[in-house]
Specification:
Elements (H helix, E strand, L loop, with lengths): L1 E6 L1 H7 L3 H8 L1 E5 L4 H16 L5 E5 L5 H7 L1 H4 L3 H13 L5 E8 L3 H4 L2 H18 L3 E6 L2 H6 L1 H4 L5 E3 L6 H9 L4 E5 L10 H12 L5 E3 L19 H11 L6 H11 L6
Parallel strand pairs: 1-2, 2-3, 3-4, 4-5, 5-6, 6-7, 7-8
Helix pairs in contact: 6-8
């Protein structure tokens, strides 16, 4: 079974209308991220239909993405997006048992504009973390240039059922420190570990992917946002290349069954 631990079906279908057909044909189980109710309801429909058809599962997740703090601040009259309403929706979906996980949430301090919204990001993350703990849900984290924020919250993170780091961008030492501190962390890797993707981030991700314990690894596409080099968008079919790159980095260690097991552990068995 192939695993896509982080993707955006609502956005992917706009770029690739046959995306759900491809997912099913390849047998890709995925955790589907949504940042609006419209996105979530689309993912939930796919999830329910997959269950009805006994197809590989699609697990609907929901959160206010940390970048939304900047989007709302910079274009308040255009977005018509309410952070307060979205947080209310998060609680409602969790209370109704409709969420497989809370995510993606976290911190994005990539540039000066994002850093100006740090206080709002802090407030958003606190609500998401509280929701995870209240409803015993896994947490999916987005983190860019913000590992200090993650370590500031390890006391609460280690109480979470599982913490999935989408497109892990930290160092080997930071990942090992999280595990030592008792965080039930899983590290997800996508196109950055493939040999046809350039950049310093790739090399750091490759080192981590090669060194972390196998029971802590996941694969993802972040579809459609993290394409393989030379592609316009990422898609479920990319999992084969990402898994192959992971196995090559780990000296040929066979990872497909291990990743499938990790996916079920991370998301509380909901991948069954």
């Amino acid at each position: 079974m192939f695993v896509d631990a982080h993707c955006h079906p609502f956005d992917l279908v706009a770029a690739f209308p046959r995306s759900e057909e491809e997912r099913r044909s390849l047998g890709v189980s995925c955790a589907a991220s949504a940042a609006t109710l419209e996105e979530f309801e689309y993912c939930e429909r796919l999830s329910l239909q997959a269950k009805k058809d006994n197809a590989t599962p699609l697990l609907p997740c929901f959160a206010v993405h940390p970048q939304m703090a900047l989007i709302v601040k910079s274009t308040p009259n255009v977005t018509r997006y309410s952070l307060r309403d979205s947080l209310s929706a998060l609680d409602s979906l969790a209370r109704q048992g409709r969420l497989a996980a809370v995510g993606e949430t976290g911190f994005d301090l990539y540039n000066a504009d994002f850093r100006e919204t740090e206080k709002t990001q802090d407030e958003l993350f606190a609500v998401h973390l509280e929701t995870c703990l209240r409803y015993d849900l896994p947490l999916v984290i987005h983190s860019r240039r913000a590992m200090h924020k993650i370590f500031a919250n390890t006391g609460a993170l280690k109480k979470c059922r599982a913490v999935v780091f989408h497109s892990w961008s930290g160092t080997e030492g930071e990942g090992e420190a999280l595990l030592r501190q008792g965080v039930n962390a899983f590290f997800s890797f996508g196109a950055t570990i493939t040999l046809n993707h350039k950049g310093a981030v790739r090399h750091k991700a490759q080192r981590c992917c090669a060194a972390f314990p196998p029971e802590r690894l996941l694969t993802e596409t972040d579809a459609p946002f993290q394409p393989l080099r030379g592609r316009e968008f990422s898609r479920y079919a990319d999992i084969a290349a990402i898994l192959g790159a992971m196995e090559a980095l780990r000296n040929g260690e066979k990872m497909e069954e291990i990743i499938a097991r990790n996916f079920k552990m991370a998301f509380g068995g909901t991948g069954d």
